[in-house]
């Protein structure tokens, strides 16, 4: 019987367990494309699934991992043939559909994006859902009319995955980037990525006033809660904040004041079910607007058998930038 290596999540009496095992190929779920997975990555959500800290996994057994890049082995989908290089992020992989921390994945061809020219499979996973989400946030700000001329932009959770890619892309596009971090020791790293200013995240974690001094025209927030409330209160007239994360919490202790008195917009960002057209657009922009040297500077490589030990680290905010996982 054909088997392949995978990180398997099972239900236990208390919570869940995660282990590197051999998975039976016959247990792969339905899909019209089978992919040989070459690279994956570690996102915040993967940390939640690996540790069982939040109910991310909704089917057991599950193969963890929400992103992969690899080569098509078999396809009955008209768009894909054996040998094609593809990228897949989100769509419930690692949650409801068997995921990416495995040598093999079977998915719907409609979920796949061709590996953009100029990016290797490893680069694509160094970007992963976190970097893709950062680019969706940048595109949302642009659609809202925010440009480098509008004023500074703030990035929260800046030393994390979404934050590092957002900082690198926004600075390359010519924005004055204010990076907010809780890790003072990462100030040099953030300046190298292109941050013009680095601020202490404690400044943004005090209870927010309805309105405060206008500091930025736009922002990318991966933290949520009081931080997002402060970002909104400090956004200039007509500005916008793209909200993509909840590293500090799901709540939003804010008021309508920024919206009705300054015309500020709150832009919601979802990467998981993002339709295919904006997906392709975001990957194309990542290929052109993310400096490859900076990408390699923010990336650390680990192997499939190291993933489980890295899960708690990303939840503890100890991961700098992006982790890429070599599968084959
Ligand atoms: P990371 O862990 O890499 O980054 C999160 C960063 O947030 C940390 O590095 C830290 O940055 C900061 N942070 C952590 N805890 C706190 C806290 N208690 N208060 C303030 N800041 C904190 O995760 P990712 O970049 O992969 O993901 C970031 C967030 O975005 C997560 O909540 C994730 O679920 C969400 N997300 C959402 C997506 C979507 O589709 N909407 C897709 C991808 C991610 P620093 O040390 O610099 O302060």
TrEMBL record:
According to the entry, every stretch annotated as the Enoyl reductase (ER) domain falls at 15-325
Task: Determine the domain of life of the protein's source.
Answer: Bacteria
Q: Which Gene3D superfamilies match?
A: Medium-chain alcohol dehydrogenases, catalytic domain, NAD(P)-binding Rossmann-like Domain
Q: Which Pfam families match?
A: ADH_N (PF08240), ADH_zinc_N (PF00107)
Q: What is the name attached to this protein's record?
A: Alcohol dehydrogenase
Taxonomic lineage is: Bacteria, Pseudomonadati, Pseudomonadota, Alphaproteobacteria, Hyphomicrobiales
């Amino acid at each position: 019987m054909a088997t392949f290596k995978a990180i398997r999540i099972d239900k236990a009496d208390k919570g869940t367990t995660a282990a590197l095992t051999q998975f039976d190929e016959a247990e792969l779920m339905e899909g019209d494309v089978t992919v040989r997975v070459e690279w994956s990555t570690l996102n915040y959500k993967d940390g939640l699934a690996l540790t069982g800290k939040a109910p991310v996994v909704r089917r057991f057994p599950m193969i963890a991992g929400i992103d992969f890049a690899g080569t098509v082995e078999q396809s009955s989908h008209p768009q894909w043939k054996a040998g094609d290089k593809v990228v897949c992020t989100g769509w419930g992989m690692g949650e409801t559909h068997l995921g990416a921390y495995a040598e093999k994945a079977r998915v719907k061809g409609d979920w796949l994006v061709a590996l953009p020219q100029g990016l290797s499979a490893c680069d694509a996973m160094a970007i992963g859902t976190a970097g893709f989400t950062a680019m969706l946030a940048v595109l949302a700000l642009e659609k809202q009319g925010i440009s480098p001329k509008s004023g500074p932009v703030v990035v929260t959770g800046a030393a994390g995955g979404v934050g590092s890619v957002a900082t690198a892309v926004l600075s390359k596009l010519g924005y004055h980037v204010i990076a907010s971090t809780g890790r003072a020791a990462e100030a040099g790293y953030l300046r190298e990525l292109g941050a013009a200013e680095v601020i202490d995240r404690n400044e943004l974690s005090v209870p927010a006033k309805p309105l405060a001094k206008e500091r930025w025209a736009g922002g990318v927030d991966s933290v949520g809660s009081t931080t997002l409330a402060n970002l909104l209160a400090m956004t200039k007239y007509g500005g916008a904040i793209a909200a993509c994360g909840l590293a500090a919490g799901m709540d939003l202790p804010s008021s309508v004041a920024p919206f009705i008195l300054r015309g500020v917009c709150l832009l919601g960002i979802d990467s998981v079910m993002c339709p295919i057209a904006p997906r392709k657009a975001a990957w194309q922009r990542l290929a052109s607007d993310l400096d490859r040297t900076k990408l390699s500077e923010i990336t650390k490589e680990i192997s499939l058998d190291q993933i489980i030990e890295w899960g708690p680290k990303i939840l503890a905010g100890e991961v700098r930038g992006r982790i890429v996982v070599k599968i084959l």
